[in-house]
Every structure is written in C-alpha cells, then in structure tokens.
Automatic annotation (TrEMBL):
<dbReference type="Pfam" id="PF07238">
    <property type="entry name" value="PilZ"/>
</dbReference>
<feature type="domain" description="PilZ">
    <location>
        <begin position="6"/>
        <end position="95"/>
    </location>
</feature>
<dbReference type="InterPro" id="IPR009875">
    <property type="entry name" value="PilZ_domain"/>
</dbReference>
<protein>
    <submittedName>
        <fullName>PilZ domain-containing protein</fullName>
    </submittedName>
</protein>
<dbReference type="GO" id="GO:0035438">
    <property type="term" value="F:cyclic-di-GMP binding"/>
</dbReference>
Amino acid sequence: MSDRPTRMDPRDATELRAVITCMGRKTHATIIDISMGGMCIYLNSHIPISPEEEIEIKTEEMGYLTGTVRWFRRPRLGVQLDMSSNTAAKVQSYYKKYIKHYLMA
C-alpha cells in the first residue's frame, strides 16, 4: 500500500497562467490540472517550496486562492486548496465557465 494521499475529486486538464507566492517570493507558473479541491502547478522558475508550505495562487480567472503544498517534484507541485466558501465559489465558477463536461452533468 502507498502512503500517498488519495484524491477526493477528479482533476481536469487546464492551462491557466498564475503567479505563485511562497514565503514572500514569487514566480510565474501554469496550472496544468485542477479539481474542486486542488491543482497541479508547473513552476516557470525556482523558488523555495516544500511540502506543507502555504502558498498563494493568483489567476485572472479566479483571483486569489490559498493552499497547502502536498508534494513537490521540481518543477511541479500538488496543492490542496484551502476550501473556504469563497474559494469553493471561485473554483465552481471557473468550472461552470471553462470546463465543458461540467456543464453536461
């Protein structure tokens, strides 16, 4: 058995430009997949990041989100979003507007 956490929600491929902030340092990035509870992010340049770090994610489509790094394998990281009602509304709005299969459900 694996010690890796299991995903709660299925992820959908995307290509969202983002700015990631961790410990006061920023880098441009691309969100390469997203779910209602998390995302995988491809960092464009190196900044100090490790699992359990709190990060801020800024996108044009969803504004500011916060989350916790769950894994990091340079240049990719997995993030669990801090699921306040505001964050959930932002992610759900993104799905309604941009993810086609969501509209068919």
